[in-house]
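Methods — Computational structure assignment.
A single polypeptide chain was analysed. Its primary sequence is given first, followed by the predicted tertiary structure written as structure tokens.
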Amino acid sequence: MLEIVPLSRAHDHLEFDCGVAGLNFFLRATARLHGEKGISRSFVLVETAAPTTILGFFTLTLCEIATDHLPKVYAKKLPKHGLPAVRLARLAVALRYQKKGYGKLLLADAVFRTVQISKQAGGIGLFVDAKDDKARSFYDRYGFISLPDQDNRLFLPLKTLLASTT
């Protein structure tokens, strides 16, 4: 059975390989430390039968976005100052577990957690910086919207998030 849990010392983060050096390095050297310092939170997908093996992971952090960076249809409805949101800082699936729908599962959990955060503290949506065209295509499939003049910075509005979790 699969489950998504907070990253801990018990997880075998050194063996994780998604094929992207920067994502591997983050999980191996930075993710847990950022969690301990309250900078971000990383969550890992594991199989209950092998709970230390990381199949995939994602990292969430809080952010603030300027209204003028949003698409006009959203910006016109919001105050002009910085707006609170959640950033999906990283999402990756280990090479040997790719093409099994695990990325979608991780993203769904990130969306669920973003909705919970917005209910407790507010927020206008979920932001992500797609690392490349392949990642951008992945997020496009789930309704993320490009920010003006920033093709790889994407936004999923709170209204869309709420609709996806009901």
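Note: Strands lie at 2-6, 41-47, 56-65, 83-93, 125-129, 145-147, 150-157.
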